[in-house]
Amino acid sequence: MAPARISAMGWVLAASLALALVACTAGDPEPPRPSAQVSDPTEPPSEALPTTSPERPAGVKPADFRPVIALAAVRHLAGTIGPREASGPAYERAAGWVGRRFERLGLTVQHQRVDVPAGTSWGVAVPAGRSVNVIAVPPGFVADQPHLVVGAHLDTVPQAPGAEDNASGIGVMLAVAEATALRRTRLPVVFVAFGAEEPRGETDADHHYGSRTYVRSLPAGERAAIKGMLSLDRVGVGGVVSVGSARDGLDRAADQVEQAAEAAGVPFVREDNRSSDHWQFVLAGMPGVRLGSTPYAGYHSPQDVPEVIEPDQLERTGRLVLAWLRPG
Ligand SMILES: [Zn+2]
Question: Around Cβ 66, how many Cβ atoms within 10 Å?
């Protein structure tokens, strides 16, 4: 538990409870607990976890990424749940599912309320309402000590089931969380499934509500403790991983991500990008980089279904993230 973070971020326990209740009645199959031998289509069978000693667990490495975990999440979110507009019941169901996945990895999960205005999302009217960020921290986490953030947005535009945009990012994040659960990383990692990334209007103020809420909730000391943030957004189509820099000129954070890609043997292309949740971190002075956004014309359409996802691209992205997290 991390009392300092909980008080600083203003957790809404009632919202968390409501989500749990909604999720429990929505008919989602529950992943098995680690000791249970239960077949469940939303969670691939566990492989043997790394041999660790209590004193010094193994350091995580790129080969620890399991794309089957990411692919199962894509199928569940985009295939079973479907479109997840940020303020709607399907989003709540998805948020409850993601939160339970984190909890089963031993992470402490909180739901942070995100208010969203009425607007127009990719041509469809959307109401004012509430979304949530699902935030997962490791055991013993201290919010004002150096750490990293790996995030992905969980919402979709109203008309799209969102396999590429962005069940792909959520899936890679969950697989990274699994790979790091019992292994060492170079710094503690906070995972965030952001609500309401998709636009509800035309300007730079009309999207990224979840990440903006998260960043605004952080006191100065906690912002200074974030040594790097990756936003995984559209990471399941293509043959190279886009490393998206939001800064003009020198961007040491993006340089570091490129070095991780090279170390992992992952092909990449450096691009300018301010259109995902990393932008809110950069605006507030923190190091943030996007992974993803290779061209896929159907990403905001009903055609964004699990069949468009290429497991090899999920694996490229996941291996890059684990190289970025690898202890020195
Ligand atoms: Zn997206």
Answer: 19
Q: What is the DSSP letter of 61?
A: -
Residue with tokens 């692919």: 71
Q: What is the DSSP letter of 62?
A: G
Residue spans of alpha helices (H) in the chain = 3-9, 13-25, 67-74, 89-104, 168-180, 209-217, 220-225, 252-264, 278-283, 311-325
AA identity, residue 298: G
Query: Distance of CA 42 to CAs 31, 48, 68, 76, 237, Å?
Result: 6, 18, 10, 6, 21
Cα 166 to averaged position of ligand 1 atoms, centre (Å) = 5
Distances (CA, A) of 139 to 24, 32, 109, 143: 25, 21, 11, 12
- Domain residue ranges of the chain, discontinuous segments joined by +: 3-26+61-325
CA of 48 from ligand 1 middle (Å) equals 33
Q: pLDDT tens digits for 84-139? A: 999 999 999 999 999 999 999 999 999 999 999 999 999 899 999 999 999 999 99
In angstroms, what is the span from residue 65 Cα to ligand 1's centroid? 22
Query: Which CATH number is 3-26+61-325's, of 3.40.50.150, 3.40.190.170, 3.40.50.300, 3.40.630.10?
Result: 3.40.630.10
pTM of the complete model beyond 0.70:
yes
Which tokens belong to 31?
């992943």
Ligand 1 ion: nearby residues, β-carbon < 5 Å:
165-166, 233
